[in-house]
Design a protein that fits this description.
Elements: E1 2-9, H1 13-22, E2 28-29, E3 37-40, E4 47-51, H2 58-66, H3 70-81, E5 85-93, H4 99-107, E6 112-120, E7 126-134, E8 141-144, E9 161-171, H5 176-182, E10 188-192, E11 196-202
Parallel strand pairs: 1-4, 5-8, 9-10
Antiparallel strand pairs: 1-5, 2-3, 3-4, 6-7, 7-8, 9-11
Helix pairs in contact: 2-3
């Protein structure tokens, strides 16, 4: 698997979109009507997803738990209660399912649950994918890559940033072997502790 994206928790989505546009990033909402997220894409490598929370009603979370999706609900709940800043990391593969990755989690004694997801973005692209959330919240969540590639080609943001050069992910060192087995992306650096740090790649010259 490769790095998929990092979630940036913001205070208010519309305000954050304008703030990051003012910083020279090209930012697009996840969908045209009633968007719940916004994206900062790069031509290659991981992207950034801006969220001000899951916006999932409590009743829906209860229903998901009843349907055996408790690990997903726990991750959404953490998103709703965590502080501002980078708060979640996702890995992606290029298959149609996540069976291999679920088997790796099971080998390491970690249960998980998953579900399909879909959205029509602001360009009319039908983006379909599957997600899996490990029950261990100190392990990144997993997804298949989008059915249609939404990333721009040969694009550099107006501020000169061409991509993400490195993501530092803090977790329990006991998780390092599992995470390295799941993800072989050389942009990923693991450290003991908590938190996520992002370093950008700027256009040369």
């Amino acid at each position: 698997m490769k790095l998929s994206h990092v979630i940036l928790k913001v205070e208010q989505l519309d305000k954050a979109v304008q703030e990051y546009r003012d910083k020279g990033f090209a930012v697009e909402y996840g969908k045209e009507k009633n968007p719940i997220n916004a994206l900062i894409y790069f031509s290659k490598g991981p992207y950034i997803e801006l969220l001000d929370g899951s916006r999932m009603p409590g009743a829906a979370k209860v229903l998901m738990r009843l349907l055996g999706k408790g690990a997903l609900v726990d991750r959404l709940q953490r998103l709703d209660t965590c502080g501002l800043g980078y708060c979640e990391l996702a890995f992606e593969n290029y298959e149609t399912d996540l069976k291999r990755e679920v088997a790796i989690l099971q080998k390491h004694g970690i249960k998980s649950c998953g579900m399909p997801s879909r959205r029509i973005d602001t360009h009319g692209r039908d983006l379909r994918f599957r997600i899996v959330s490990p029950a261990a919240l100190d392990v990144p969540f997993l997804m298949t890559y989008f059915s249609t590639d939404p990333k721009p080609v040969d694009f550099v943001h107006p501020n000169g940033i061409a991509g993400i050069d490195k993501i530092v992910y803090g977790t329990d060192p006991a998780r390092f072997p599992l995470i390295k087995e799941l993800c072989d992306d050389d942009r990923l650096e693991l450290k003991a502790g908590n938190g996520i740090e992002v370093e950008f790649e700027r256009r040369k010259g």
